[in-house]
């Protein structure tokens, strides 16, 4: 093992967290893998962690000097629980924090944007990862993946807007570098794939690779908001639908060189992702 202290990976069984934990372990770093049920993670020390149970925080932070932060899922106010944890982490000796945020949310913006704004004042070494929309949204149990399987359709309010979809493998590779390189980025990092695509383009790629008919159904903001609100709180549903509207207005029509610059490899394409993960 390279490190005497460990890296705490919060959400270590999730989309990026499990990949971050695996990447750290592969490089010989000590890892504490935090999840609500302390699920075993190969090569790591499993530890129980729940954002909403501060009693679990102390054990998770014991012996840790850096942390990968995945906000509580579905929360419209993650700062309420994350900021007390981050202050406790700093007091416990954590000196580097890498926060998973979103390209759609700037520092000081809603939700995790409030945490982003606070991180530089809490830690001397830090990074905020701001990935574009995940390619993994089209695989597994994600809503788009379900609608593709069940209805042969992707439903959005993005219109013809384009997105630099990014593979979680690339997000995790950047996170490992941000956590372990001698010099922390000390900035926020926009992460994208190699090209921008509309959801019409995405549907066409998935249809071609899988051989199944897939279309993009264009919804209005109100239709999408109401669809989400049937499953999640209205405030959060409105925020998500608003992100689609921002895509329609061009907010995600960009690419960055961050993945290649920090990892030395080109980011993966949507086609390669579909061939690997979409069934």
E-strand count = 11
**Main sheet: strand order:** 3-2-1-4-5-6-9
Termini distance? Answer: 37 Å
**Biggest β-sheet strands, sense, barrel:** 7 strands, parallel
Structural class: alpha/beta
Mean pLDDT: 96
Oligomeric state of the chains? single chain
- Strand and helix order: EHEEHEHEHEHEEHEEHEHHHH
Uncertain runs with pLDDT below 50, 5 residues or more? Answer: none
Please tell me how large the radius of gyration is.
19 Å
Q: In one word, what is the shape? A: globular
Helix content: 25-40%
Strand fraction equals: 15-25%
Tally of contiguous helical segments: 11
Overview of this protein structure:
- Helix content is 39%, strand content 18%.
- The chain is of the alpha/beta class and 279 residues long.
- The strands form 3 sheets. Strands 3-2-1-4-5-6-9 form a 7-stranded parallel β-sheet, with helices on both faces. Strands 7-11 form a two-stranded parallel ribbon.
- Helix 1 crosses helix 6 (168-180) and helix 3 (79-91) packs parallel to helix 4.
- The radius of gyration is 19 Å and the shape is globular.
Gist of the model:
By secondary structure, this protein is an alpha/beta fold. It contains eleven helices and eleven strands.
